[in-house]
Write a structure and sequence with these properties.
By secondary structure, the chain is α/β, with parallel strands linked by helices. It has 20 helices and 8 strands. It starts with a helix and ends in a 5-residue tail after the last helix.
């Protein structure tokens, strides 16, 4: 979402880079351009105005020491202010230390609310919580079935009843959760097409019934300032505790994400950047600020890798690399790990300096699917001993995988080059930086 904003900010900051010091004139010129960029990105007018004033106050009168350029210094001020704008610090999900933790999920229809419930349930089960999903959306056709489908994918039970009474659903689900010893209950409430008085009264009543530890408002980041306005209206009625930003992988300008926390006064707790159930991140203001300024987010990238690798797999892979026994089966395992981490574009966007540069690059996640198909069409012998892959075998693999011989040849060549590189490491010993690096 922020690639275009990042690129424009980078261009604006280049104008002050190389100048001897920060002056009122070059600060004003740079910030005037940044203010225009923020407004173009659909950031709330008052939020943009206050942001620029705060950066200006920090920048004026600051001397530039020899090791820091004016561009670096003003970038630091903008980073600090962006972090503050987005909430200042990370806000934990409130968990009931004794008894059942109840989480109420509200939002407009089409915001990705039901999918978020599934994603949150998955994340909490991975933290060893016993989660029950509650289908309290009794209006939208197939809403209950959608939640049940999500629950089946992550092996989480979904509570529902035949009666079209959301208040009764909420009441009976709590009794059921207590009987079955669930310690976490997530309520998927009906999405509103607009702020309807009767529907708002219903969600207010449900909140009174479940007395949630967390009330989360799910908002579609693609809807711009409309998202901010609906958040204000919901907050006045429900007084929610936190915000969930969905569809951050879209092409909108990002104004809602930058405005909503400041306007509503409630912290952003989660961000969702894809349709897969794995695509949910705990929100850290400083990390998003870094990504917006093109500095990447290496910490989140490493955390994704940690979550995807098991300790025994890491040790096993290291041993195979050391003995130069890395084969196509191992390669297939690594592809599956990468796919669990998210889309290739989202992963590359976390690498410093790459976010804006890959905006229009043709990054095709289906390339991994093609590689998987080719490897799956190989025999056990061919995977473990690629040297046996003669012309006839490659033709058979191409037919079996629905790819071309050129695709198969390209993969085998790339794999051979990778093996040669790994072989040189195994003979010389892994570099110290790689030997000492472990996910733990």
């Amino acid at each position: 979402m922020f690639e275009e904003l990042s690129l424009k900010l980078e261009t604006a900051l280049k104008k002050v880079t190389g100048q001897g010091k920060l002056t009122e004139a070059n600060i004003s010129d740079t910030l005037r351009e940044i203010r225009r960029i923020l407004l173009d990105a659909d950031v709330n007018y008052k939020v943009a105005k206050d942001f620029i004033e705060n950066v200006k106050l920090k920048a004026l009168g600051k001397e530039v020491i020899a090791s820091i350029s004016p561009g670096q210094l003003i970038t630091k001020f903008i980073y600090d202010e962006l972090t503050e704008l987005l909430g200042g610090g990370h806000q934990e999900l409130q968990i009931n230390p004794s008894g059942i933790t109840t989480i109420l999920v509200v939002g407009l229809q089409g915001s990705g609310k039901t999918t978020f419930c599934g994603k949150l349930a998955k994340k909490l089960t991975e933290q060893k919580r016993r989660v029950l999903l509650v289908a309290a959306d009794i209006y939208r056709p197939a809403a209950i079935e959608q939640l049940k489908l999500l629950g089946k994918q992550i092996e989480v039970e979904v509570f529902s009843i035949e009666e079209k009474d959301a208040r009764k659903v909420a009441t009976e689900s709590l009794i059921y959760a207590k009987e079955k010893n669930y310690n976490t209950v997530i309520f998927d409430t009906a999405g509103r097409l607009h702020v309807d008085e009767q529907m708002m009264l219903e969600v207010s009543d449900i909140k009174s019934i479940v007395n949630p530890n967390e009330s989360l408002f799910v908002v579609d980041s693609m809807t711009g300032q409309d998202a901010v306005n609906s958040a204000k209206a919901f907050n006045e009625t429900v007084n929610f505790d936190g915000i969930v930003l969905t569809k951050l992988d879209g092409d909108s300008r990002g104004g809602a994400a930058l405005s909503i926390r400041s306007v509503v006064g409630k912290p952003i707790k989660f961000i969702s950047n894809g349709e897969k159930l794995e695509n949910l991140e705990i929100f850290y203001p400083e990390r998003l600020a870094s990504r917006i300024l093109g500095k990447g987010d290496v910490i989140s990238l490493v955390e994704k890798a940690q979550a995807s690798f098991e300790d025994f797999e890491t040790e096993e892979l290291e041993e195979k690399l050391r003995k130069n026994k890395f084969d196509f089966d191992d390669f297939l395992k690594q592809i599956k790990v990468i796919k669990k981490m998210g889309s290739l574009s989202s992963l590359l966007g976390m690498i410093p300096g790459l976010g804006a540069k890959i905006k229009n690059a043709p990054i095709d996640d289906n390339a991994l699917v093609k590689v998987e198909a080719i490897i799956n069409s190989m025999t056990k012998e061919e995977r473990s001993t690629p040297k046996v892959l003669n012309g006839n075998r490659r033709k058979r693999i191409a037919r079996g995988s629905g790819t071309s011989i050129q695709d198969v040849n390209r993969l085998v060549k790339q794999f051979s080059e990778m093996q040669r590189m790994m072989s040189s490491f195994s003979k010389k010993g892994l570099p110290s930086s790689m030997r000492n690096f472990k996910f733990n």
